[in-house]
Specification:
Blueprint lengths: L10 H4 L1 H21 L6 E4 L25 H20 L3 E6 L2 E2 L8 H10 L4 E5 L7 E2 L2 E2 H13 L6 E2 L2 E2 L5 E6 L5 E2 H12 L5 E5 L14 H7 L7 H16 L1 E2 L2 E2 L2
Helix pairs in contact: 2-3, 4-6, 6-8
Length: 262
């Protein structure tokens, strides 16, 4: 299972080479090792819901177009899907790509909105809430980490065998792509309200029009394929997941409603 990547949409504008280095060159290095291994492993790797880019079909389905990325990060993940397909076709590697939808929870990425919102709310700092065209609220298909883990394990359990030996393919091998989302988009202001409730602190909100940094106005996963093939069935709604995250955050960082805990 290959989950390593340079993640995030915005930082890609500042340091594009780090994304190419990790998400494309790093992936090829891994696939080169896998193709020559004996026996060849099956590969499950992290793609991203960002590959849907400017697609406006809702909910996003694996059969939708993904050739209009809105960010360099998305483009590197789309490139990864094409590269893995090539290795599947030429070398018989069993490949499963997982398009994650806004994964959150304990031990999450500090650069994501829910994480930085929590930090700033507790420190009494204002938070920036982006709005889309015509002041529409942005929405994300927030997916709790426990549900994602179940989807990852299901992908490994059902991956099917690679068919190559010594870098030569003996027959067709599985090539699969699945959405792993919660299929229940929630607006960013609603996310903030839930955090306020769990933290028992009011947020200072600054509403700003979304900059042209590659972010998309909404994401929404069709998970019927993953449900059918992997038995994937998310069970954690955003209110429940954020409650678990906040409990972890306060324990880990030692905050108690704005005051340091000894």
């Amino acid at each position: 299972m290959h989950l390593a990547a340079q993640a995030g949409v915005r930082y890609a504008m500042e340091n594009p080479h780090s994304y190419v280095h990790s998400n494309i060159a790093g992936l090829v290095t891994l696939l080169e090792a896998c193709k020559s291994a004996y026996p060849q492993p099956s590969v499950v790797w992290a793609s991203s819901s960002s590959v849907y880019g400017l697609n406006e079909n809702v909910p996003f389905s694996e059969s939708d177009r993904t050739d209009q990325p809105a960010s360099l990060y998305a483009a590197t993940k789309k490139a990864g899907e094409e590269i893995t397909h090539t290795y599947n076709h030429i070398y018989g590697l069993s490949i499963t790509g997982l398009r994650f939808f806004t994964v959150y929870g304990p031990w999450g990425r500090p650069d994501m909105a829910y994480f930085s919102f929590t930090r700033n709310i507790l420190q009494g700092k204002p938070i920036t809430v982006y709005r889309g065209k015509d002041r529409a609220d942005l929405a994300r298909d927030f997916t709790f980490i426990d549900d994602i883990v179940k989807g990852c394990v299901g992908s490994l359990d059902t991956s099917g065998k690679s068919t190559g030996s010594g870098g030569k393919k003996r027959g067709p091998a599985p090539y699969r792509i699945f959405n792993l989302g919660n299929t229940s988009p929630v607006t960013v202001p609603t996310l903030v309200s839930l955090l306020e409730r769990h933290l028992k602190v009011k947020a200072k909100r600054n509403f700003v029009d979304m900059p042209g940094n590659g972010d998309v106005p909404f994401t929404h996963a069709n998970i019927s394929l993953a449900h059918r093939e992997l038995g994937y069935k998310p069970t954690t709604d955003l209110a429940t997941g954020l409650k678990k995250f906040v409990k972890w955050y306060l324990s880990y960082y030692g905050y108690n409603h704005g005051k340091a805990v000894n």
